[in-house]
Amino acid sequence: MTHPVPAATPPVVAHTAEPRPRGALWRPGVLTRTWREYGYLWCALLLAPFAFAYAVVAVVLPPSVAVTVVGLFVAGWVVVGGRLWGSLYRGMARGMLGTEIPAPPPRAPGRGFWRRLGRLLGDAAGWRAVAFNALSFPLSIVAFVTTTVFLAVALAGTTHWFWYRWLPPQPSSDGTLHRGASFGEDYFIDTPPRQWILIVTGLLCLFAWHRLTLGFGHLFRLLSTGLLGPTQGSLRVAHLEQTRGAAVTDADARLRRIERDLHDGTQARLVAVAMQIGDARDRLGTEDPDAVLTLLDDAHRDLKDTLAELREIARGIHPPALDGGLAVALETLAARCPVPVTVDVDLPRRPGPEVETITYFAVAELLTNVVRHAAASGAYVRVEDLGGSLRIRVRDDGRGGARLALPGASGGTGLAGLADRAAAVDGTVDVDSPAGGPTVVTVHLPLSVAR
Q1: What is the rounded CA–CA span in Å between residue 247 and residue 244?
Q2: Per-residue b/e over 256-282, b at no fewer than 16 CB within 10 Å?
Q3: Burial (Cβ within 10 Å: 0-12, 13-18, ≥19) of residue 155
Q4: Which of 24-38, 50-64, 202-216, 365-379 has the least mean pLDDT?
Q5: SS3 sequence, the chain?
């Protein structure tokens, strides 16, 4: 079942643009990333007062101007303006936190005066960006102050041995003068052992600054992904629109193919049969009965071929074998397959008609791949009910190497076409096909399609 398909554009999801460095602080790239995320904390602190003020205005303005319709429109556009803040913070997350956050779906303008106003005031992406502005204000203050204190202590502790000599002398309780940092009245960092202790303390603070900076950066990463990107609901809608488009395209292609087959094949044969019967009728009064019989034989043969074509076309619309149930239909497919196929169907109840049709065509496609590409000596088909979902598993002992692109980019052909068909009813397709085989393709479908 080695039917490679071209790679498809992945669905839009938030992902980390670069892997998080792990390990010691001195490893290449670790400090670079730490400084970059520390720069994000600086920028977040500079923007935080303005972002928080915008959030306060967005919350306070709607009830303040509710008495005027024009004021509500202004408040609505303030809410929608939160998307601009979201775009700014997404750009910062991409450049400094190494996280690519996709933009939320564009705002759908409503039709009609009140619906348009409702869409403005109820813009979910705008309100979520406003919430980010409000939450980032205290977080940016805490993050910046904490990390900056640890960084300052780390730099001061590791370099104190150099610059302490320029500090003004300080008297101790016994009257002696000392230079260097003091802790209490009589403890001065002015001896080599104490300098080393301070250096070690500075290095520990440097490591703590590194971990704290990455930790606060990860908090901002989570907050940005949760509030500035698309929600699961919007991703779900986008996925359904994609699979629906693929299903519509596939259905349109099927209708065009059926129309072309009927026009170019069946219709032409019927015209030829009609001409042959007309010619035979014209020759009935002649003295050449053999010619009439020849014409009738040709017409009879063409009619049988036409009926066979019509049966094939009808099978592409709805397999007649499904009238006897899915098990009978799959046994029919296995009997027609040139490769020995074992079919095992364990279904306590019959799936919905749409799911049965998808299952039939899925098994037909997979068995076709076994014959064409796998060079297998046999195949096994298992269909079972797994707690309210239908699982189809087709296994062959062929050469392996099958690949599956993501749904939506196949044009309705091959394994990706199967994925498109399954995704149209919220199904999934998984391909396990290492080089050398065996190949196992698993399709999960609902037992019925919600209407």
Answers
A1: 5
A2: eeeeebeeebbeebeeebeebbeebee
A3: middle
A4: 24-38
A5: CCCCCCCCCCCCCCEECCCCCCCCCCCCCHHHHHHHHHHHHHHHHHHHHHHHHHHHHHHHHHHHCCCCHHHHHHHHHHHHHHHHHHHHHHHHHHHHCCEECCCCCCCCCCCCHHHHHHHHHCCHHHHHHHHHHHHHHHHHHHHHHHHHHHHHHHHHHHHHHHHHHHCCCEECCCCCEECCCECCCCCECCCHHHHHHHHHHHHHHHHHHHHHHHHHHHHHHHHHHHHHCCCHHHHHHHHHHHHHHHHHHHHHHHHHHHHHHHHHHHHHHHHHHHHHHHHHHHCCCCCCHHHHHHHHHHHHHHHHHHHHHHHHHHHHHCCHHHHHCHHHHHHHHHHHCCCCEEEEEECCCCCCHHHHHHHHHHHHHHHHHHHHHHCCCCEEEEEEEECCEEEEEEEECCCCCCCCCCCCCCCCCHHHHHHHHHHCCCCEEEEECCCCCCEEEEEEEECCCCC
Q: Do residues 309 and 269 touch, judged by C-beta distance below 8 A? A: yes
Q: Which of 229-233, 296-300, 322-326, 447-451 has the lowest mean pLDDT?
A: 447-451
Q: How far apart are CA 122 and CA 111, in angstroms?
A: 15
Contact 137, 47 (CB under 8 A): no
Which of the four pLDDT bands, split at 50, 70 and 90, describes residue 4?
A: very low
Is the pLDDT at 431 greater than 90? The verdict is no
Could you give the CA distance from residue 67 to residue 434 in angstroms, rounded to a whole number?
A: 67
pLDDT-based confidence at 232, cuts 50/70/90? low
Q: What CA–CA distance (Å, rounded) separates 313 from 226?
A: 50
Residue 284: both structure tokens together: 């009935």
Rounded to an integer, what distance in angstroms lies between the CA atom of residue 233 and that of residue 312? 41
Mean pLDDT of 346-356: 79
